[in-house]
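To assess whether the prediction recovers the assembly geometry, we first specified each molecular entity separately, as shown.
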Amino acid sequence: MKRRDLLAGTAAVLAMPALAQNKPDKLVYVGDNGPWHWAMVEEVAPEFEKQTGIKIDFTLLPVDPWRARLKTELNSGSSGIDIVQFSVGMAGWISPHFDDHEEFAAKIMARDPEWDWNDFLAGSKKAATYDGRTIGIPYRITTGIMHYQKYLLDQAGITRLPETFEELRQAAIALNHPPERYGFGLNGRQGAAMYSSFSPWLYSAGGDAVDFKTGEILINHPEAVAALEFWSGFVTKDKIVPPEAMTWDFEEIVAGGQSDRYAIVETFAPYGTLINDPKLSKSGGKWIWDTVPGKTEKSQSKTWVDGHSLGIPKYTKNKDWSLEFIRLACSKQYMRRSMIRGNAPPRGSVLRDPEMVRSIGWTEVAAKAIETGVPTPADPVFQALEVSLRSGLSQTLIGEKTPKQALDGVADDWRRIMRRAANLR
Amino acid sequence: MGGTTTTAVQAGLTAAKPARPARAAIRGRWLDRQFITFAVMPTTLLMLCVFGLPLVFSGFLSFQGWAPELGLFDGKFVGTANYEDLLTDPDFIGSVRLTLIYTVVTVSAELICGLGIALLLNIDLPYIAIFRTFLIVPMMITPVVAAFCWKLLLDPDHGVINYWIGEHIVWLGRPDTALFAVALVNVWQNAPYVSILLLAGLRSLPHEPVEAARIDGASTWQMFRHITLPLLRPYILVALLLRTIFEFRAFDNIYVLTSGGPANATMTLSQFTYLCSFVRFDLSLGAAASWLMLLMSMLLCLVFMSTVRRRDAS
Amino acid sequence: MAALNYVGSRRSKLLFASSVYAALIALTFAFLFPLLWIIGLSLKTRLQVFANPPLFVWWPTWENYAAVFGRADFLQAFINSLLVSSGAVSLSLLVGVPAAYAFARFPFFGRNFLFFGLLAMRMLPPIAVLVPMYVLFSKIGLTTTRSSVILAYSTFSLPLVVWIMRGFFEDLPRELEESAWVDGASRYQTFFYVVLPLIRPGLVAASILCLQLAWNDFLFAAVLTNNATRTLPVLMAAFSGGDTGVDWGGMTASGVLVILPVIVFSFLAQRHLVAGLSSGAVKG
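The predicted structure of the complete assembly is given in tokenized form:
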């Protein structure tokens, strides 16, 4: 970190005399235990402690206990958490506990214009919004993009990256070389990763899950069915997916890429680093990236966007100090550091930085995808809907049901779930 | 053995007999009568507070309509709506059926395996005890660790199982093989427990009937079927009961291996309840499902015990 | 004792013995292989873990254990696990053994109700009480402490303790206590000085089973502790990081370190374990 920035930071802190009175000795941060926290834990927190004398007490839990803890503590109005890390899908039920973070962002800007709130990608800000209110500062933004093994495309004489569904299908078929390497990889396990594997096709085909404003269920409309026919066709009709992909959740799809089991895949942008690293991957160094194809033309390309934001709950007594920590953690220099250490930060300047593009590779594509991406729906009922969708998708991949049958079944189940939600509120 | 007990008793008595004045004696007698209370009270309190309260709260939740944005006590009363929703949900009914079938199959497998192992360990050969020591290990391993290990063993590409079989079976990717794999892991982990129970039973069996039968010229199989098995019945029944309770609500292994898939093939009640409470975050539905699980479990045990009692009586 | 001994020629006896040993060796291999495989995985690098065909012979690496021990929080988690487990075992025994004695010896008001309640506790899926328990603890300010975990574990091992110890107590001949009472000893004195020393094997058995329950639990510890008070299984879960993949080497290394103490302990005390499991069981 440059000395100039350090001085600027210290000056900013010293410019807050009013805070010095009720300074806590620690701030409690509750988040999940993903390994992308390195920069925050090992660099930002010590720097923050050096500048302010306040320790950061990190509580990093696996996904389910993390959500359970946040729900119970925030619902009881406890002041025990100072900084909340929440994911996009949680925004719906967590929003009542947060004030408008546009004001917080403005506060930071007033003190530190270099911080540049406009540098944050529009898609990431959308992901930290619920019901028209910004409720957090985005820290990590993930999106689904295409990963291609370039030399295989060259070998097959494919000069232009696929822009439509059909082009992608043809490319995958051409690159299919069983049993060593298959054409296409996807998440086939009935689990949390399935949505990220299917939804780009849903959105790029012009489909959607639910119109939350009207409550209309769209998951079994023709666009969605077409998307599922396309995606499941890789497994059931063309058979160009590795058979073990039926057990693939998040980490297995990475392992599959590292074992060179497929030539093309749509998955998390940050996985590109893991799959392309020659130290970890057999196929290291061979990958290039692009946004997902559209159904009939590239402009229809739309993918999912997810990630984590940092928020200050209403009940904490240390709002200003929490804000200070967030300012530091989300500053340009520390977000750049976090990128090097495994994060995918939502800043345009970082993602489009030529050095980042050169060394990491997928960042520019990710930035493009995030601009138009669809954030995971934050309506609280979506969690239940997504679980129900998983079984329908799984049944299609196994071949138990046709796409239309499966999605009709999912729609029926969704009707029950939404009726239940409406009755109980 | 009698000698040591009497000495022990005497030693205990000498330690236990201080002199006492009159008022202390009266207080002492009252204290004495309260012994049962003092002995049982901590258990009751602990049970009621740390277990009973959450259980009652869970029951309370199951009659509420609770949405994730509300405070925990702010749901509105909806009567049996949650239970109705469950009982009309085809996924829940499917889960119940699957859990019952799964329980029966795994418990039977555990009993058969356990009995076989116990019979082997009961044989009077040198160093047999060493085998018993080793065979206990699976039940001591943290279930989550064991499940992760099996996941790697069953991996289609890098797994040892496929390597030995020579076929590329995607164990956890097809409904039938996934269910089999999940059952296999549970049986692997729990058959040793059954074998220990039954081994103790075999050890405690009287020798006379066996000797008599052998003198009468009965074959090994006949002795086993008509003497050993009936004498072993109480132990088998206890093993059956305990294992049924556990397999009915088994969670860790299935969660790690398949978390309910593929296509709901391993979606037992415990997985279903977990998804309700922790992923869908529909706590009232999860509470209702848990209560239904508890009631079903109790019903199973009651049916079981009354059948046994009826057969004993007849 | 050995129901399958039989009279036969020396040769057929030898044949019989060797087939029994062969069967037992095969069974032991089948049951122990996964454990050996975990240990093997902990000594492999990531690339070796995913080698295809699987590696049976390789040069072991200590990097995973080094990584695990190098974590500052590993020692802390280990200590936490020790504290929590011993606390849970002590509390369960302290509370459960006298109750088991009462169950075995004295018919008292509410006995059947209490016993049924304990049985119900065994049948309930733990996830059902997880969130309500968390709420309860947060109301009394115990969340993130080790005490909350100790209380939770005690609740789950209590039925086990009562179940097993009751069997042991019932096995004791009444005459010993009766002669003590006749001699003027109080109930308490009889219990402490006469009865307790005689059921020590049962105490050992119950302790091992409670220890295993407390040491191996993951879900409750994950929700009820924070980074400072978390136990080993929770730390282990940190190696499987959400949407960035599983660190197999770190996970298996920490997995081995988690299961080793319990296995060693049960090796040492397995005789008592067998006695304990069987005695309590039948009378149940």
